[in-house]
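Technical annex, item 7. During the second reporting period the consortium partners agreed on a shared format for inverse folding records so that results from different sites could be compared directly. Each record opens with the tokenized structure and is followed by the designed sequence. A conforming record, contributed by the partner at site C, is shown below for reference.
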């Protein structure tokens, strides 16, 4: 199935992007800024030699490289820009290299994005209609990724930073700036400490700046660095036009591909890695016996460490003390992990395994054998940071993980990252090299993943960083966040928080997932509301997670129905997104979302009545339907079908009744054949 949609159905205008790219190529517009020595780039660039490379076009993407060279010091500033035949978007990365024979003067405050933006003269400009749309990051809360709309009146500035060095810790690095009926989507690709600001000094001027938060460094002869990746996507009409153009753009040009198509997000049976092998093998047999249509068998943390660290469940044992001790625990898995991967493959499942290679506790083997590869103060039990910016360390890790993938038979490499690297990076920088450790680390991170993907075609990388704390334009090009928030790790978590996460993150990123692990709403209890609250492109859906969790009286038929329901919904997450309600996180709300595939003529309505909502009935007007077409609607709970005209569904709406709370409804619709 082709999971990329034609942007023409949203009627985008390419004029803004093309004019913008042409202005940059002509030197009439510089989209960046920096300080070099005691002067700003705006003072310097006009006197530097400029060279424009030839355009290279492949698969509808045109790449152009522009280079400015300082004749005095040999510093080269390179802008690699891409424009797109089908999307009103431009994207670029900057590189600085010292082609001279001496250290450069200080290069500071590098902002690869520094522009003034305003809609054209033919568009509405209304101070009251100028707003910034954004979502918060993943902070282990029910409000993770909550969407918000903030006014940007004259004289105000909205500034944000990633937080702690993980790119979606405080804020998700995607933004929608709207003025009247025009807007620009902004995306940042930097898996470190980015910073951005949207400043409106006067009514008719908005300055947008973004880049690595701290850069104050000199480059040695022959040295080169890169900056964060920047995306601008222009839109006209309604804000959701911009959001859906972004979703389509990411599916077409960024998400991982297999055979030229976006990778299929999986449904996974998640389990605890410290559980003994015999229990894993029994669970795989249960999956086969009860015909549960999973894609992956997922083994999480706890499978490693010395024999004495055996931890049969997440609450027992000392597994947390041995991060960095990457020997398979012989007490739990006397024959290693390959028999488990083999059993999964024989059952028609792929195999997922958890790692956290960037963190190691002081005293674990690698920290003792190669202390030079780690950043941080060496104290008993302290977290140390494996330095991906060190080529020798990165080469070792690449070989180790690659061999593990090959020898065990891993289909999905799950990489977690459970602490904040920023203090480690900054402590390692000399006064005249501030930002350099972070740059080399982020570059090394991308190289590490790229090498794994090159060596293992078809490998899926699961991007986990205490949940979804490292989601940005670069990581989503190489991975999928299968576990977008650690909020679901809390015993007794409220599924309403999971609804908020789907509601907010879906504005920006089409492929993401989470799951129903643990808590009073454990799926073993047959809780459909909980499962649907986590319904996303991917779904983690355990049978039993820990050793000792029983299988007696498990609702096998219900679990099979839920997985089949998810599999029917999955292709629709690759389409357009229409939030049908706001979501403040309050317990007295109804929350509803529509996912729509115009190329297939089908979609779904997903609605929730939360615990304290007093309302029994709600009507939801659907979007993007053909008013003259007939649609067949199927209630996922009852299987009942009925038909309605598109005009009725978009003008009058679809009436939903939920007599109890909390409750959920899922309605699929499909354009009926004439």
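Designed sequence (site C submission):
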């Amino acid at each position: 199935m082709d999971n990329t949609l034609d942007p023409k159905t949203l009627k985008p205008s390419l004029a803004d992007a093309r004019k913008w790219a042409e202005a940059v190529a002509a030197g009439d517009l510089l989209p960046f800024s920096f300080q070099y020595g005691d002067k700003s780039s705006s003072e310097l660039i006009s006197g530097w030699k400029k060279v424009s490379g030839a355009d290279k076009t492949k698969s509808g993407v045109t790449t152009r490289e522009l280079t400015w060279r300082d004749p005095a010091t040999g510093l080269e500033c390179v802008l690699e820009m891409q424009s797109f035949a089908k999307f009103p978007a431009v994207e670029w990365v900057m590189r600085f290299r010292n082609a001279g024979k001496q250290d450069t003067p200080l290069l500071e405050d590098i902002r690869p994005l520094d522009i003034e933006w305003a809609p054209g003269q033919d568009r509405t400009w209304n101070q009251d209609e100028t707003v910034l749309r954004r979502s918060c990051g993943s902070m282990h809360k029910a409000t993770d990724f909550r969407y918000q709309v903030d006014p940007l009146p004259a004289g105000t500035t909205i500034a944000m930073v990633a937080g702690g060095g993980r790119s979606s810790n405080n804020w998700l690095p995607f933004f929608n700036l709207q003025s009247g009926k025009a807007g620009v989507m902004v995306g940042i690709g930097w898996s470190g400490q980015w910073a951005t600001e949207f400043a409106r000094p006067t009514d008719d001027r908005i300055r947008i700046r973004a880049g690595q938060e701290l850069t104050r460094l000199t480059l040695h002869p022959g040295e080169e660095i890169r900056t964060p990746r920047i995306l601008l996507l222009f839109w006209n009409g309604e804000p959701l036009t911009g959001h859906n153009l972004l979703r389509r753009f990411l599916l077409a040009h960024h998400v991982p591909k297999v055979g030229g198509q976006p990778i299929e997000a999986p449904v996974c049976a998640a389990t605890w890695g410290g559980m003994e092998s015999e229990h894993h093998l029994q669970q795989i047999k249960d999956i086969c016996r009860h015909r549960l249509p999973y894609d992956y068998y997922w083994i999480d943390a706890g499978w490693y460490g010395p024999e004495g660290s055996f931890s049969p469940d997440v609450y027992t044992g000392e597994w947390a003390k041995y991060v960095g001790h990457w020997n398979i625990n012989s007490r739990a898995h006397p024959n290693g992990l390959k028999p488990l991967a083999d059993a999964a493959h024989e059952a028609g499942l792929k195999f997922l395994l958890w790692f956290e290679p960037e963190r190691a506790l002081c005293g674990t083997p690698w920290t003792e054998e190669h202390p030079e590869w780690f950043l941080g103060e060496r104290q008993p039990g302290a977290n140390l940071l494996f330095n991906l910016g060190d080529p020798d360390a990165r080469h070792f890790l690449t070989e180790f993980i690659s061999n593990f993938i090959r020898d065990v038979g891993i289909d999905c490499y799950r990489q977690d990252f459970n602490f904040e690297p920023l203090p480690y990076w900054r402590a390692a920088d000399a006064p005249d090299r501030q930002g350099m450790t972070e740059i080399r680390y982020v570059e090394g991170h991308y190289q590490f993943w790229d090498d794994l993907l090159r060596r293992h075609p078809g490998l899926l990388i699961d991007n986990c960083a205490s949940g979804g704390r490292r989601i940005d334009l670069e990581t989503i090009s190489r991975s999928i966040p299968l576990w977008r928030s650690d909020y679901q790790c809390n015993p007794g978590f409220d599924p309403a928080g999971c609804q908020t996460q789907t509601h907010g993150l879906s504005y920006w990123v089409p492929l993401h997932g989470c799951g129903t692990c643990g808590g009073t709403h454990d799926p073993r209890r047959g809780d459909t509301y909980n499962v649907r609250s986590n319904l996303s492109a991917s779904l983690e859906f355990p049978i039993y997670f820990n050793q000792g969790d029983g299988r007696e009286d498990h609702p096998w038929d219900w679990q099979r129905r839920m997985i089949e329901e998810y599999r029917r919904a999955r292709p629709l997450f690759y389409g357009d997104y229409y939030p049908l309600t706001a979501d403040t996180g309050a317990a007295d709300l109804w929350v509803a979302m529509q996912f729509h595939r115009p190329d297939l003529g089908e979609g779904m309505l997903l609605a929730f009545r939360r615990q304290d909502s007093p309302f029994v009935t709600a009507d939801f007007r659907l979007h993007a339907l053909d008013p003259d077409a007939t649609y067949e609607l199927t209630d996922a709970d009852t299987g009942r079908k009925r038909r309605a005209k598109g005009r009725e569904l978009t003008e009058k709406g679809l009436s939903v009744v939920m007599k109890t709370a909390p409750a959920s409804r899922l309605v699929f619709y499909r354009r009926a054949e004439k």
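Residues 467 and 486 are 5 Å apart (CA to CA). The chain has 13 helices and 40 strands. All partners now use this format for quarterly exchanges.
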